[in-house]
Amino acid sequence: MIHTDLPLIDLHRHLDGNLRLETILELGQEHGIDLPADNLEDLRPHIQVSEPEEDIIAYFQKFTWMVSVLADYEACRRVAFENVIDARAEGIDYIELRFSPWFMAEPHNLDPAGVVEAVVDGVRTAQRETEGIRVNLIGIISRTYGVETGHKELNALLTQQSAIAGLDLAGDEANFPARLFVEHFRKARAAGWDITVHAGESAGAESVWEALNLLGASRIGHGLTIMDDPDLVDHMRKHRIGIEANLTSNVHTNSVRSYAVHPLKTWLEMGLLATINTDDPGISPVTIRDEFEVAAPAAGLTLADTRQAQLNALEVAFLSMDEKQALLDEKKAAG
């Protein structure tokens, strides 16, 4: 259940993993891109999943057709715009949208800096046209491309430094550990950005430790292996480290066997700052309401648990204290 007296927040949503099916079809037709189907229903199984995939790599392959239609900067702008419009339609009060400019630019050899500019413009335009939603952007370094490309991706993001709130590290966690990207995140922190890192999803607790100690993360994306190390649990609780939980996508990537065994319930009971998020709604076709009203109960969460998750999201959001208070005040006024 969503508690309407508290802000509805999604802290972990990939903008480039959340394209409307209709938009993929339209952009494909507009740019003459050979998609696997020419109508929505036949295209759907190539992009969306409803059952667990073999593994996280099989899930990632669903991204292929999404980024394949980002043929120009206007397409990137449109996708960013629609992300904000759709988030507001879900009733979201505050959302952090993350994106990898290199990943978006690669299929059609776009300039990553141009992609960043287009995304920022699309989000700003949508915010002007949509009342009642706050948006922050998080840039991603896609670790899968390696260290040198990571520097290029970071430089592209820094061209819009004031429009970006944070930096994330995503991609092949097992083969590209956080320790390779220390300098990238030093620059990001110097730029005034907050830090969140995908960790503990396809690697062990040591990956989470590296994200915290080497990259300066104040939040961890997924974090499924945290419970393997009691000292890590204690550290995260003591230092108020946020956890961006993604129930449905974790089931769909086969990172957990089922909702019932997901650690989110345990995290909340242990006082960890776990939150509920959607991850890639274009692939796992869910809304934030689905995550609260379907996935959360399936994972054993009570009304008190979902309330705590909403409170946690407000606490660890990349917002100032004044902005957080304003979100609360607006909910009370609407009350």
How is this structure best described in words?
This protein has helices at residues 21-30, 40-47, 56-60, 63-68, 73-89, 101-105, 112-129, 147-158, 182-190, 205-213, 230-238, 247-252, 264-269, 288-298, 303-316, 321-334; strands at 9-14, 94-99, 134-142, 164-170, 194-199, 219-222, 242-245, 273-276. With 335 residues, it is of the alpha/beta class. It has a single domain (10-334), classed as Alpha-Beta Barrel (TIM Barrel). The longest helix has 18 residues, at 112-129. The radius of gyration is 19 Å and the shape is globular. 50% of the residues are buried.
Map the helices and strands:
Layout: E1 9-14, H1 21-30, H2 40-47, H3 56-60, H4 63-68, H5 73-89, E2 94-99, H6 101-105, H7 112-129, E3 134-142, H8 147-158, E4 164-170, H9 182-190, E5 194-199, H10 205-213, E6 219-222, H11 230-238, E7 242-245, H12 247-252, H13 264-269, E8 273-276, H14 288-298, H15 303-316, H16 321-334
Parallel strand pairs: 1-2, 2-3, 3-4, 4-5, 5-6, 6-7, 7-8
Helix pairs in contact: 5-7, 7-8
Describe this protein with a few key phrases.
335 residues; globular; 8-stranded parallel beta sheet; 16 helices; TIM Barrel; alpha/beta
The CATH architecture term is Alpha-Beta Barrel
* Low-pLDDT stretches: none
Overall CATH class: Alpha Beta
Helix share bin:
40-55%
What is the CATH topology descriptor?
TIM Barrel
Major sheet characteristics: 8 strands, parallel
What's the β-strand tally?
Answer: 8
Helix/strand order, N-terminal first: EHHHHHEHHEHEHEHEHEHHEHHH
Q: Taking all residues together, what is the mean pLDDT?
A: 96
Spatial extent as radius of gyration: 19 Å
Distance between the termini: 17 Å
